[in-house]
Input
Amino acid sequence: MAIPETSSSCVTEGFTAAHNFKVSNFPLLQGMGIGQFVSSRNFSVGGCSWNIRLYPDGDAAEEAKGHVSAFLSPQGGQGEEGVRVKFTLTALGKDGNVASQKSTDHTIDESIGGWGWLKFMDEPTLQSLLRSNNKGFTIRCVVTVIKAPRIEDVRSIVVPESNVLQHFAGMLEDMETADVTFTVGGEVFAAHGCVLAARSPVFRAEIFGPAMKEKATRRVEVEDMEPSIFRALLHFVYTDSLPEDAGDGNVPMQHLLVAADRYGLDRLRLLCEVKMCDGIDVETVSTTLALAEQHRCVQLKKACLQFIASGGVLAAVKGSNGFKHLAASCPSVVLEILDEISSLGV
Output
């Protein structure tokens, strides 16, 4: 004889997010005084507001002497009882090299100023980091807010996570259902006209415009673009994300940004801007700045101007071939560089 059965489960949820706090010209912050800090803007994780506090001269006289202090600071939503968090603070160079990393698990409430490390980074590590990264670095904070456990009845029906993007990504390899082809630099790409038209007004005009209707087959010749860039463009159209290898240098990102602008893909254009802001260096900053000016990328242009003016790299930048191109194609930007340097008192 079967006996009645019931089931329940303990469910614990965690919400994770990351915030990058970029610090430029750090030596100018030193000398602020013990206990003085700079903070990132507030960011939200798990329904709570947080920021990163960085103490250039340490947070306490004796304990933190010769060290930079760093803390995660609650800014609202934690309540009097607090929330349990796991978090990691990492000091990164421009190439993602880890100079210092610390992790902890703690319950934080709104009554405390922050939780972290008095001795986050010692002076030798700091100086090495500054020498190799134009006097700046990034503090990356990864926070997981752990909610209180709850008890639920066990359901017999489990709804899986959406996999629609994986299905769309698979369509890129599906030659059988493709109805339009693109020839790019000698390579042929098959795609689906309805997908491309839904994502880009330019693709819509190319595929469903009057000129295409007069042709027996849908074939489009794409000029002035590398096959690898068009492949990355299609990947974004189908998956709404950059390919995994898209972060390999600023030059491919420059070409992909131009392609995004050409096809009216605003989100892709902004993703490229973000990647390029993180990858600015002496060799590519001039061409990146020229590109930002030509394609009206306001934030990217600002990041380039700040890099040239504040990183002590002006002489090296002026000696690059990219700077000669910049001066010839965008002479007004050279004046903006001088204005930026003047505003910083360099």
In short: The longest helix spans residues 227-239. The mean pLDDT is 88. The radius of gyration is 26 Å. The chain is about 35% helix and 25% strand.
